[in-house]
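hey all, quick one before standup. I had two proteins in the batch that finished overnight and I want to keep them in one place so we stop losing track of which output belongs to which input. First protein below, input sequence then structure tokens straight from the run.
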Amino acid sequence: MFKFKKGDEVKITAGKDKGKTGKIEQVMPKKSAVLVPGVNIYKKHVKAQLTADGKGGVYELSRPLTLGKIALICPNCKKITRVGVKIVDGKKVRICRKCGKTI
């Protein structure tokens, strides 16, 4: 079971965007990274021949963040928290370590 899922609200805890919040758009378990739009923005210079519309330029892209740089915001208590796992009715569910409710 992965501790972060698509649509979770997270807070950035390290790096140039420290303190910003956002929703997870994509989870990459093999890279141990997540993609949060509007965070970790970098500029990429693209040649005109390489794009579909034939226009080159400087594009801004969101790059993935490693899991050590984010913290989950609990939807119940609205605090940043660690994620715990509990077995309920034979299935694993994620729980908030601060309030104890399921996420």
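OK second protein, same deal, sequence then tokens:
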Amino acid sequence: MFGMAQETPWDVSFELFGIPIRIHPIFWLSSAYLVWDPEQPAFVFLGVICLLISVLVHELGHAVMCRRYGFPSEIVLYFLGGYATSTRFSTWKNVKVSFAGPAAGLVLFLLLYYSRLIPGVTEILDQYVAARRCMHVLLFFNLMVNLMNLVPCLPLDGGQIMQALMYRYWPRRAGQRIQQICIVASGLTAFWSLYCLQNDLPVMPIPRWMLPGPPFYVPQPDPKFLVFFFGFLCANSVAEYNESQGR
């Protein structure tokens, strides 16, 4: 998400399903920050492992789709997530590659959520705090983070999808319109997060009918982080827009 990660002597490298994977050291630090809980610091290690699984599933969705179309994609886990190397495909192949990541994460979320219907799983979650904590982290990152990734703002997957469609169906002044959409989408998300922060509201309210089965709490994203994150994306989009207009 934030540029390409240069190789270091401390990288962890391996293959999964024939796809090369490299984990940059900053991934571990940023992951620890994301899952840090001052009230339960002992769970940071488990949280980082859960985040590793979530990010890998997301990036595998991108990489597997790229390889399906003939590009030898590789995965790098980096700051606040990671990326799967890609190339230019046709419009709808680009859309499918971009959507495959969030789709893979959302499928994992559904599998985990409905696994609670398997006899004995709920009892284990009730009995073991660590298991319940891991389930919370996995559900959060595979639902909330993948939904946020679909916001139509670059460099998020939603922005990549929007960009591909704009260049295909509205090519006239597409670059300018893409920047404008990024500004509006990221700005509105930042303002909504700020509103939720001030009024103690959930950033992503999930209707009960959308998650049937035994009640289970899915953590909400931190609105302060979202204000900063999408505010940064909005400011970056404004700067790029002004530069393109010669301002």
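Flagging for whoever picks this up: The longest strand covers residues 12-16. The chain is about 60% helix and 5% strand.
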